[in-house]
Amino acid sequence: MHDSPLQAISNAMAQIYKTQFGRGPTKVKTYFAGPDAVVCILEDTQTPAEKRLVELREDQRLRDVRLFFQYATEDDLRAPVEQATGRRVRAFISGIDVRADASAEVFLLEDGATAAREAPPA
Asked: How far apart are CA 47 and CA 45, in angstroms?
């Protein structure tokens, strides 16, 4: 049995987080947000050291470090979305709420009609 495209994206994001940050989320869910956007919500991803930063009220420091790594691995995050949807990601937006220990990865997809026009002939 094959995963749905959204489940495949969720699984890939969880694995990328595990590799990147040393632990994966305990909850991950991916949704289509209209015809041209994919949103992946990941919860409970912080390491013990990151949780300590939150306790010390170093929210901005943690946010800066996390977002730095998110954008450093942007290609890795885009790839499973492109593979699962068959469409190019034209924009990537990453966000984190360190107090709630929740992250959102948003992928804006190239218009399906544009992708079909620009695809090389078979």
From this structure: 7
